[in-house]
Amino acid sequence: MILFPAIDLKDGQCVRLKLGDMRQATVYNADPVAQARVFEAQGFKWLHLVDLNGAFAGKPINGGAVEAILTGTKLPIQLGGGIRSLQQVEIWLSKGVSRVILGTAALRDPGLVREACRIFQGRIVVGIDARAGRVAVQGWSETSDLSAEDLALRFSDVGVSAIIFTDIDRDGVLEGLNIDATLDLARKVPIPVIASGGLASMTDVHRLLQPDCRILEGVVSGRAIYDGRIDSALALKLFGQV
User: What is d(CA 92, CA 94) in angstroms, rounded to the nearest whole number?
Assistant: First the structure.
């Protein structure tokens, strides 16, 4: 089980949103590189980066901050937000990003996901963000009629390395992960699933250690780590990452 600390970038700063609302942003660190180094020093093995401005704009906006993190730490990074073309995928991978997350593009341009998986094997992640079970895109500002399961099944045989499933209704409000929905998705697709949205306490961490959660690749956490609601050192030990 991998515990992915999240660095969400808005206007060059490290923030957390409530329910994906850009107007409800809490700045946790004005220096994302410093925050990345804190996570590295704490023993995390991965970083989860999202360009929030880019997700809304449809193109990378916080590229400078991402590049600074790439050069400022040695941790592997998975990056999402505003990546909508094969050229952008290639650029980020060439700059040192380990895995690129395609979200809006997965819904609107599934051919891009297939082609990216073919060219960059093992380095493409699909981000599926759902509101009431339906896929939301464009920085969560638009909700489609497609279910999370149906979108995931479209890519079951193309070589996607993982699916990050986020329950938007749980994101940033510390109400706990939607374990039932996450496990239901993981059981129905042959792709490793990463839980996201709502991890609130060590209770969630211990829930993820139960046998039925062994099919999950990991979990993304933001606010609970920043606020100290989970003991990062203990969580990493429990997950076998130290």
Answer: 5
- Catalytic (active site) residue 145: no
CATH number of 2-238: 3.20.20.70
pLDDT of residue 85: 96
Q: Where are the domains of the chain?
A: 2-238
What is the per-residue pLDDT for 19?
59
H/E segment holding residue 67? helix 63-72
Active site residue 129: yes
Give the pLDDT of residue 144: 81
- Point out the catalytic residue in the list 11, 51, 109, 129: 129
Burial 61-73 (b: 16+ CB within 10 A, else e): bbbebbebbbeeb
pTM of the model: 0.93
What's the pLDDT at 43? 96
